Structures are given as C-alpha cells and as structure tokens.
Amino acid sequence: MEILKIAAFSDGDSGGNPAGVVIGDILPTTETMQRVAAQVGFSETAFAAPLDGDKKWRVRYFSPESEVPFCGHATIALGAALALKFGAAEYALTLNGAEVTVSGEQDGHIIKAALQSPPTKSALANDAMVDGALKLLGYSRDDLDPRIPPARAHGGADHLILALKDRRKLAAMDYDLDAGRTYMSTHNIVTIALIVSETNTLFHARNAFASGGVLEDPATGAAAAAFAGYLRDISWPHGGKVNIIQGEDMGMRSLLRAEFTDEAGSSVRLSGTARVME
Question: What mean pLDDT do residues 125-139 have?
C-alpha cells in the first residue's frame, strides 16, 4: 500500500496541513483504514478507489481515532495526488453522505487544487454549548466578537464557530485534550473553529480538533466551508470570497480561499496549493 504525504493549503514551499493519501483499486477494510490512519499519524488520511474509470472516486476519511464524514484539507491533498497520477482534471468524489468534486493541476513542484464543498447550513449555538467551549478554552463572553455570534455550522461536518475580538487571545489558545475530546463528543462536532476578523474578507483561524486525537489542525477546509456558509447566513459583507490564514501560531502557516455566492446553503469553493512532502 503506497501512502502519499501531501501538505494541503500550503504557503508556497512551506506550511500547510499534512494529510495521508491512499489511492487503490479497491478500498481497504474499515479496520485497515483506521489502522493505517493511526500509523500515519496525521489529522486525516484519505482513501480513494475508482468508481468509473479515473474520473469518479469513492472516498473515505479517517483521523487517527475515528472516521470523519468530510475533510477539506485531505480532499485538497487527494486532488493534488490525482492530478499527479492522472493529470489536470476535475474529479467527482462520492463520500459517505455527499457528492463533491475536486480539481488539481501541477505548476512546477507546487500543485494547485480546489474543491466544491457539500451544502452548508448553520444555526446559532445554544448557551450550554457556548459556555462549555469557553470554559474548555479559558475564554469569557467578553472575549467574543458580537458581530459574529457563536454558531453550529456545517460544510460537510459540524463545527462550533467562535469569533474572538483579539488576535492575541487567538494566539493564546490552549486546552486539555481529553476534556476537549469529551466536549466534542458530547456536542457531536468535529472541531471548534476560533476566528478573528482582520478585515471583512481576511480572517485568522485556529481549529481545536480533539475529536480527531490532535490538539489543533493547521488548515481545516471543512471548517472553512462551514464558516463561509455561516458568514453568508448572517449577511456578512463578504463580497463573494474570504481568505483565511490558519496554522500561523503553530509555525505551519496555511492559506485557504473560500468563494461562494449569496444562494443560501449552496456549495463553497475552497482552493489553495499543495506540496508533496519528503
């Protein structure tokens, strides 16, 4: 079994979020995929097998601890891997509960990739959910940006969106991994997406990912899609696109671009670059 290691949403030759990619004739067993993902140790590994030639693929995603319904950065990594193997194209992906597409093209040693997310939806988070997250992370309600109320947002998976006023508070994020895992399991979310707005279209983000067995993700495409859909739902002045800088406080600066229309619930296009890791 060949396992490619690709950093998605990279900042040129550096940064990005590492993902494992396994492309085979058939998908391994669930137990094998879970074991391989744990051995790889990245926040997610994507497994893909052809459904119709080399243009349609069945895909499943595994973190070191569990299967996840959708992973943006692993999809970008998969798009890069498919482009390297089969050439520049748009590829149709069948997930456990959605149909998406990913495209990839090589530009020297950097690969450009873009995906269309599953449909998005959001709702304001209830007080118990918000208070639990604030306690976990050591923040208070005074730290929150009132322009972007806490929300449960979906873009292939569920995430809690918490917008902070102060970039320094974002840089100071810390929490207990076991407590975070319990919190995310209780509320059935994949990550807590912490956001700071620099401008209406530029955001800084950190994503707590205890549900996947890691403290933090350097780039989280599914959360970026969910967040973009939420901005649309609250009529934020997005102008059709936002840029997100993530992973900077981890020393793994990652760049994500989300483009979307005003149509409620519609797919979000996420794009970035990827680099093959040694």
Answer: 98
CATH of the domain at 211: 3.10.310.10
Is 18 in contact with 9 (CB distance < 8 Å)? no
Residues 82 and 208 in one domain: no
Residue 184 falls inside a structural domain: yes
Q: Which two tokens stand for residue 102?
A: 């990913």
- Does position 184 have pLDDT exceeding 90, yes or no? yes
In DSSP terms, 100 is beta-bridged to 93
Assess whether 63 and 140 both reside in one domain.
no
Question: Which of 85, 116, 147 is the last residue before a domain boundary?
Answer: 116
Q: Which residues, listed in sequence order, are joined to residue 146 by a DSSP beta bridge? A: none
Torsion sign across C-alpha atoms 42, 168, 255, 114: positive
- Together in a domain, 69 and 155: no
Contact 277, 5 (CB under 8 A): yes
Last residue of a domain, one of 68, 97, 116: 116
Tokens coding 267: 């797919």
| pTM higher than 0.70 | yes
The total of structural domains in the chain comes to: 2
- For the segment 40-84, what is each residue's pLDDT rounded down to a tens digit? 999 899 999 999 777 899 999 999 888 988 999 999 999 999 999
Assess contact for 242 and 202: CB atoms under 8 A: yes
Q: Got the DSSP string for 92-136?
A: EEE-SS-EEEEEEEEETTEEEEEEEPPP-EEEEPPHHHHHHHHHH
Does 278 map to a domain?
A: no
Long-range own/partner contacts, residues 196-199 (CB < 8 A, 24 or more apart): 196/145, 196/163, 196/164, 196/165, 196/166, 196/167, 196/169, 196/170, 197/145, 197/147, 197/148, 197/163, 198/167
Which residue range is the domain that position 94 belongs to?
Answer: 4-116
Per-residue model confidence (pLDDT) at position 23: 97
Q: Are 8 and 73 in contact (CB under 8 A)?
A: yes
SS3 18: strand
